[in-house]
Design goal:
Elements: E1 5-9, H1 20-29, E2 32-37, H2 42-45, H3 55-66, E3 70-74, H4 82-87, H5 114-131, E4 137-141, H6 157-171, H7 174-181, H8 208-234, E5 241-245, H9 254-259, E6 263-268, H10 270-276, H11 282-287, H12 296-307, E7 312-317, H13 335-345, E8 350-353, H14 380-393, E9 404-407, H15 410-418, H16 427-440, E10 445-448, E11 460-463, H17 471-481, E12 492-495, E13 521-528, E14 535-536, E15 542-552, E16 555-559, E17 565-570, E18 573-576, E19 578-580, H18 582-595, E20 607-612, E21 615-620, E22 626-628, E23 631-633, E24 638-639
Parallel strand pairs: 1-2, 1-8, 2-3, 3-4, 4-5, 5-6, 6-7, 7-8, 9-10, 9-11, 11-12, 12-18
Antiparallel strand pairs: 13-15, 14-15, 15-19, 16-17, 17-18, 20-21, 21-24, 22-23
Helix pairs in contact: 5-8, 8-15, 13-14, 16-18
Bound molecules: beta-D-galactopyranose.
Length: 643
């Protein structure tokens, strides 16, 4: 038997009540064990202030429970009801152009609004009091997709006031703020915190230190908003609390939100993401049009396993065409099964599909479900049933430790957005390119946070693009640097480009970056380069986008065609002077992995493997069969261990 389960998102308030028992029974028959409900239901839970209507939710919970289903109950704070805006007209977020955003969809609130934050916590508390120990309740979900629809930052008077308070608490005096930000430059000095505004609408770019604090502030508001609900729930319920994060959303610190929660979950829409959220050449997009990118989902599985400290789910899995990408093709037959197994191979406890039945009304009419709007099965349902049957025969087991790790840091994403220096320098993309290189070599990867205090579990740890080194990570690096400096170093670091490149106040540090322990190395000068100007590297491959002129005594291990250092090394640290293209990344990873004794193999295009406790799972995103280690993996197919 397995403790991996399938789930589905369900909206009892969208359907006549006499259909609920039939839906529940059918879910159970399909092998579904978990149902998420409630996250948008505020107007039905409290139709007017203080008028609570829990009777229907009582019946929904009981109906699902009677069918043997476990419930994840969402707090409805992503959808404040209309009357809330009459109580708090200033709660709507103001966009960067200064325009208030309106009612009529969702997420129409500013995280910094104290009144709304209290209302959201109050509703969470009411729900927790009523359902906190309900027999069918498996877990709580706070809100829905923090940051979705570009809502992490709001620029109105409410946020501006909260920002000033946040700055006063951080700096103590306006003189300290002026010094930290370097406000003498362009006479930007303030006499009082009351004069400080959010950094939108400045004539030209704002001071990067100002922009960085704005990002930190906005992220802290998400953390505090979530924490208020968590506290309200924990007071009345012993069930785990989770949130459903998104793909490639970097504008708040998920590690910090995750620290207050028990489980991390995310919403995986592979085909939507390929067309909407990924830079790739047109051939790649054409080739994987109906499958999604072979690494994008896996990256987030590994990221959220880290954010959840080992416990993570897919809360919303794409089951068919979605409605929100520029184009919305249908998955190849087999892909719903593949995506599901991929998540389990990366250690997911639950994979839950969005949604049970396609909605015939309102915004998401064009979004597939497991059932069509008329209740007939959509194509995904049969694949879900297949996985359910397979799961009862095979348990991939608890997640195993990756061969290698990559540090992922939200502050670095903000810093790079604030000061990209080159039009196509994007932190997520740099980390993701590194991740892909590891996957092309068949390695299993862990994504770790910037506060990681021990790097010794991994043979190889990459930390490209890190804005600063936290004291914990700095100390961990110092311990790595102090290992005996021979080729058999137990942990090896791949740093650069742009690692440890600013102080926390967003100034150029002295000594110059990267200032890594045991590495005599300074970045003397940096250039950003257009796509037409790669820097060729001797032996094959090139550096793209970014080139650092390095000085110091570290050994040059790769040189550009012109003889400048492209990679240097000292002890257990390798430092890269630029952003490797695929060919160079493949060379580098193969070389480093071999030195570290890691098992690599060049994976054929579209084929990926992930190590599990039960053995390797092979996943073929390609539209044709693929060979690996003497076995054939069908197009859009999966080979499970022992099959
Ligand atoms: C997610 C969201 C769901 C639904 C879905 C459609 O972003 O959490 O509520 O809108 O997208 O793909």
């Amino acid at each position: 038997m397995t403790d991996r389960r399938l789930g589905v998102c369900y909206y009892p308030e969208h359907w006549p009540e006499d259909r609920w028992p039939e839906d529940a029974a059918r879910m159970a028959r399909a092998g579904i064990g978990v149902v998420r409900i409630g996250e948008f239901a505020w107007s039905r839970l409290e139709p007017s202030p203080g008028d609570f209507r829990f009777d229907w939710l009582d019946r929904a919970m009981d109906t699902l429970g009677r069918a043997g289903l476990s419930v994840v109950l969402g707090t409805p704070s992503a959808t404040p009801p209309r009357w809330m805006l009459d109580l708090y007209p200033d709660m709507v977020p103001v966009d960067a152009a200064g325009r208030p955003r309106g009612f009529g969809s969702r997420r129409h609130y500013d995280f910094a609004h104290a009144g709304y934050r209290a209302e959201a916590a109050r509703m969470a508390e009411r729900l927790a009091r009523r359902y906190g120990r309900h027999g069918a309740l498996a877990a709580w979900q706070t809100d829905n997709e923090y940051g979705c629809h570009d809502t992490t930052q709001a620029f109105g008077p409410v946020a501006a006031r909260a920002f000033r308070d946040w700055l006063a608490a951080r700096y103590g005096s306006v003189e300290a703020l002026n010094a930290a930000w370097g406000n003498v430059f362009w006479s930007m000095e303030y006499q009082d915190f009351a004069q400080i505004a959010p950094p939108n609408l400045t004539v030209t770019e704002p001071n990067p230190a100002h922009a960085m604090d704005w990002h930190r502030f906005a992220s802290d508001q998400v953390v505090a908003f979530n924490r208020a609900q968590v506290a309200a729930i924990r007071a009345h319920s012993d069930r785990p609390i989770l949130h459903n994060y998104m793909g490639r959303i970097t504008d708040f610190d998920h590690w910090q939100v995750g620290a207050d929660l028990d489980i991390a979950t995310w919403d995986s829409y592979p085909i939507g993401f390929l067309s909407d959220r990924l830079e790739a050449d047109p051939d790649h997009k054409r080739r994987f049009l109906r499958q999604g990118d072979p690494d994008f989902q896996a990256f987030h599985h590994d990221l959220y396993r880290g954010v959840g400290r080992g416990r993570w789910w897919v809360m919303e899995q794409q089951p068919g065409p979605v409605n929100w990408a520029p184009w919305n093709p249908a998955p190849l037959p087999g892909m719903v099964r593949l995506w599901t197994w991929e998540a389990f191979a990366h250690g997911a406890e639950v994979v839950s599909y969005f949604r049970w039945r396609q909605a015939p009304f309102a915004q998401e009419q064009m979004h597939a479900g497991l059932l069509r709007p008329d209740g007939a099965p959509a194509p995904a349902l049969a694949e879900v049933e297949t996985v359910a049957a397979e799961l009862s025969a095979l348990d991939p087991g608890a997640p195993v430790r990756g061969d290698v790790a990559i540090v992922f840091d939200y502050a670095s994403a903000w810093a790079t957005k604030i000061q990209p220096q080159g039009a196509d320098f994007d932190y997520f993309r740099l980390v993701f390119d590194t991740y892909r290189a590891f996957r092309r070599a068949g390695l299993s990867v862990d994504v770790i946070g910037p506060e990681t205090a021990d790097l010794s579990p991994w043979a190889l740890v990459a930390m490209p693009g890190l804005f600063t080194l936290s004291p914990a990570l700095g100390a961990a690096l110092a311990r790595v640097a102090a290992q005996p400096s021979d080729a058999a170093a137990p942990t090896r670091i791949l740093a650069g480009p742009r690692t440890n490149w600013r102080t926390p106040d967003f100034a150029i540090p002295e000594p110059l970056p990267p200032a890594l322990p045991g590495l005599d190395l300074r970045v003397a000068r940096v250039e950003s380069l257009p796509p037409s100007a790669p820097v060729p590297v001797r032996g094959g491959g090139a550096l793209l986008r970014w080139f650092e002129h390095l000085e110091g005594t570290a050994t040059v291990t790769l040189a550009t065609a012109d003889g400048a250092p492209a990679a240097v090394e000292s002890g257990a640290i390798t430092y890269l002077a630029g952003w490797p293209d695929e060919a160079l990344f493949d060379r580098l990873v193969a070389g480093l992995a071999a030195r570290q004794g890691l098992r690599t193999s060049a994976m054929p295009d579209g084929l990926r493997r992930r190590r599990t406790a039960a053995g390797d799972v092979l996943l073929n995103y390609a539209p044709e069969p693929r060979e690996h280690a003497g076995r054939t993996v069908p197009a859009a197919g999966v080979l499970l261990p022992g099959t």
